Amino acid sequence: MPWGIENTWKIGVMTVVLGATVTMGCFKKYRSLLILPVIVILLLLGSGNLLLARKIVACLLLPIGLLWLMGLVALVWPGLGKRTRIFVGVAWMAYSLAGTSEVSDWLLRSLEKPYHQYEVIDQKLDALVVLGGGSVRTPHYELPAVGSHGDRLVRAARLYHGGKVGTLIATGKSVLDTDSERSLASDTSTIWQELGIPTKDIVVLSEPTNTAEEMAAVAALRSDYPDWKSIGLCTSAFHLKRSLKEARKQGLDPIPVPSDFRSGPIDRNSVKFSTYRLLPQGASFRNLHIALWEYLGGLLQEASDRGR
Q1: Are residues 288 and 170 in the same domain?
Q2: 209 and 173 in contact (C-beta within 8 Å)?
């Protein structure tokens, strides 16, 4: 459906919101709350199309959006003390920024950008190390499946079938109390075999529980394979910086093989603006958490290195 002022749905929304505005205007004490329907109108008008307008309405009705609206109501509530209003305003702004994709994408992009150039691998790799964390277990039969970070498993399989990799190395063991015996490396191997990769071209390192241990295990393994001249390291793009540092501590100099890019397209000008991106959303909070986790991990990594 084309986007225009003549659309019935748009006229209906504006009628309802304007009606609420007029009704609220009859109560002088609560006129400050008129900002709510105004903001809703602006969000809908700036959505870009009917589908995104519907998504905006859905976001505002879900818990994250409702909390955002409640914070805005609290901010403009009549009779609120100055200090309280400042506190609420700062909290609401922090919540808004933390939940918008513009902020989380910007932070993730700073971690991922150095590895955009490695998205296409031109040279042949003798071995490719794929860090654990890309698999999950199905709830009933507990079969290994590709998880939210599973792009690394698929990327490795594509490179293998494309003749870019000779041997795939799966690493990792679960550290969760409820899943402490699960071998992430074995799960990865199972998925690769189901994707047509023979077991003779897969090496499983099931004992390491973190990136440092994984790199130490790979360094120990390399002495058994002196013919490996070029080794790649595949993990989520935002995690590569810390992973490469751990690899170099072990005397390795792997070629970065990024996966699971989350910060969107490189050319931001190609993305059409929509007010939908300004609303706080669960995915943005998650990506912010990931970015801050990596930054914190990097700081701790540097502090640990200085202490040695």
Answers
A1: no
A2: yes
- Per-position b or e across 224-243, b if 16+ CB within 10 A of its CB: eeeeeeebbbbbbbbbbbbb
Give the domain extent around 139: 120-260
Dihedrals phi, psi of 206, to nearest 5 degrees: -95, -10
Clarify whether residues 124 and 178 are in a common domain.
yes
pLDDT digits (tens, 9 = 90+) for 222-242: 888 988 999 999 999 999 999
Tell me the residue type at 250.
Q
- In this structure, the number of other CB atoms found within 10 A of the CB of residue 37 comes to 19
DSSP strand pairing (255-259 vs 231-236): parallel
Burial (CB < 10 A; 0-12, 13-18, 19+), residue 110, is: middle
CA distance 253 to 90: 45
Among residues 260, 285, 300, the one where a domain terminates is 260
93 phi/psi in degrees, rounded to 5: -65, -40
Q: Are residues 139 and 107 in the same domain?
A: no
| Whole-angstrom distance, CA of residue 257 vs CA of residue 165 | 11
Asked which of 15-24, 164-173, 246-255 is least confident by mean pLDDT, the reply is 15-24
Please state, as a whole number, how many other Cβ atoms lie within 10 Å of the Cβ of residue 54: 14
269 token code pair: 């000008």
Tokens linked to 241: 């910086």
- 271 and 255 within one domain: no
Question: pTM above the 0.90 mark?
Answer: no
Residues 6 or more apart in contact with residue 95 via CB below 8 angstroms? 67, 68, 71, 280
- How many Å apart are CA 222 and CA 229, to the nearest integer? 10
99 near 281, Cβ under 8 Å?
A: yes
CB atoms within 10 A of CB 305: 10
- For 189-213, the pLDDT digits (tens) are 999 999 999 999 999 999 988 999 9
Asked if the model's pLDDT at residue 93 lies above 90, the reply is: yes
Give how many domains the chain has, as a whole number. 2
Gyration radius of the chain over CA positions: 25
